[in-house]
Amino acid sequence: MLESRGVVVGLAAGRRAWAASAEARRDRPGQDEEDLEYEALQDAVHVAFSGAGPSQRVLVLAADVPEQALRPATEDGGAFGVAIDQDCTGRLASSHVSELGAAAAEADDTDPALLWFDPSEGPEALAFLEAAPQG
Predict the structure, then answer these.
(1) Structural domains in the chain (count)
(2) Which of 6, 36, 93, 122 is 20 to 30 Å from 29 at the Cα level?
């Protein structure tokens, strides 16, 4: 999908995801939507790093998915963990690739730096993902 610069993402029922869901918004009244989305993205990155090799970067896709397709996930998904409850499609909003590899990002005490890619930049996001990270 990214190689073809696609914008429609197919999501299978049972797939883990992270979202600024209605439940997350209820738990954080008054918090800005963009802040919630940032926190959900960071949860996803941390989980992705846990399955990556020390020098691997990770890729996280941000997509608009129908709220009714989501259900709360297990505790290992962080505060924003959800699961896809039914097969559905989403519209890709952006792709994010970690600037550092997993070990270097873990050693840093700040949120992992993520590079933002427009949906039309899928091949570029994949190329950056595969390039050797600094640190």
Answers:
(1) 1
(2) 93
Its domain, for residue 31, covers: 8-130
Pairwise CA distance, residues 108 & 97, whole Å: 16
Per-residue pLDDT of the chain (135 residues), as tens digits, is 888 888 999 999 988 899 998 888 888 999 999 999 999 999 999 999 999 999 999 999 999 999 899 988 766 667 899 999 999 999 999 999 999 999 999 999 899 999 999 999 999 999 999 997 765
Give the angle 105-45-91 at the CA atoms, nearest 5°: 145
Does 135 reside within a domain?
A: no
- pTM to 2 decimal places: 0.88
